[in-house]
Amino acid sequence: MEPHLSFRGRRALVTGAGKGIGRAVAVALSRAGARVTALSRTAADLESLTRECPGIETLCLDLADWEAVEAAVGAAGPFELLVNNAAVAELQSFLEVTRSALQRSLDVNFGAVLHVSQIVARQMIAQGVAGAIVNVSSQASKRALRDHAVYCSTKSALDMLSKVMAMELGPHKIRVNTVNPTVVMTDMGRINWSDPQKSAAMINRIPLGKFAEVDDVVNSILFLLSDKSAMTTGSSLMVDGGFLVS
User: Gene3D superfamilies in the record, alphabetically (predicted)?
Assistant: First the structure.
């Protein structure tokens, strides 16, 4: 993707940057002039990312380890831009939800966003700079999906957390928004939704008749990080092809 917005001289942190949307956001920001730190728990993914885009700095961390995150992110900053993309999807029917799946989902999909955002927002405030935070949510925060009891719930909680963050951080000139995609054609998305019978049921509920491409989400994130959205905070940008209107 060719960058249409300039982030020259700005420092950005992207979590879940080893694969998929997070990786594409990190590369796009770097190519648009930002100094990017990419965070992932998978060292091999970070190594391949730096081969693809040598200017990117990396942090290999498990976001569930609060002490390690506090030390590493604190030392790597300060940042002006933050994309909380890291997430897990533990798909189980409601009656089969396990405590471990619930805890892992809460730790990553909700707790890690809160914690990383606290660290970065405190840095922004201490530096006296305006900042922008984008939390990657999902259409699943707005609509019940079978076998997604925990995922839907954590993404719904993330949407409300983002609104509270926007309210409390706004006086410090820090904007907070979410993007809420439908199924996205990452490598994993293509594998999981390659079966026409499985995908047809979802696509038939999307007025535009297709799933999102990675660039659809990346472009929305870049817009919300940029000064082009200077009066937008506390909002959820649906990247769902109209799924929620059907």
Answer: NAD(P)-binding Rossmann-like Domain
